Amino acid sequence: MDRRSLIKYMSMCTAGGVFSLSFPSLRSAIASERGPEWGYEGENGPQLWSELSSDFSVCGTGRQQSPIDLQGAIPSELADFELSYQDIPLRLLHNGHTIQVNAEPGNKLNLSGKDFELLQFHFHHPSEHTANNQPYPMEVHFVHQSKQGELAVLGIFMQEGDENEGLNPIWDAMPDQETPEQTIAGVKVNMSKLLPDDQSSYRYFGSLTTPPCSEIVRWVVLQEPIAVSKGQIEKFSRVFPGNARPVQPRNRRFLLQSN
Ligand SMILES: [Zn+2]
After folding, report:
1. Which of 20, 63, 64, 162 has its CA 20 to 30 A from that of 90?
2. What does the pLDDT look like over 158-183, one tens digit per residue?
3. What region, left, alpha or beta, does residue 203 occupy, with left being phi > 0 and alpha being psi -120 to 50 degrees?
4. Which of these is catalytic: 94, 128, 144, 181?
5. Could you confirm whether 209 is annotated as catalytic?
């Protein structure tokens, strides 16, 4: 997931919902929050994130980092989670690290009785989590936040198969260079088409998978992938050849799995 976009998104929200990036003070406020440039290869790559800024040190020293390999999970009676997503207007951006779709209020994840509001979702190629050391071609992250500021991220693997109609409006509008948020007039996203039928999951506590790698995330990763066509994977991979952080040590954490 992408902290920078989250900050960008939240700063736009605190500006009273005025999504005009031409407003100079807002633009400079966003620029100052961007911090050092980080990426996925070379001297800005994941192995060196902790050295790019003191704000990123937990990327190197943290003991509860994400993503992880999902292996050896403990079967458990997990507390329910429930999604209530509506169709949302398509507001998307290329933030330099991924394609992100910003949500409007009213889309919720209820996890163990607690509500988390969907802020945005975005994509990684290849997947960040792996299953028995195998990555999937892609992974989507739905990022939610509680009123208290805790994050809950729903991760869903994407494997090659039939075309995913739910992705088409997003893929049709996908910018190939960094852009501010744009609203695609008259186009809605049906997020239910991005969810698998079976919602059996893995659960663990972890972090943002991008700097500053804060260890504040309740992860729910679904066991069943959704399908995405070869052409859809190729289109994303032309814009993002690789935007996945490598898996991190699990250390002393529990990884739980639905019975
Ligand atoms: Zn992500």
Report:
1. 162
2. 999 999 999 999 999 999 999 999 99
3. beta
4. 128
5. yes
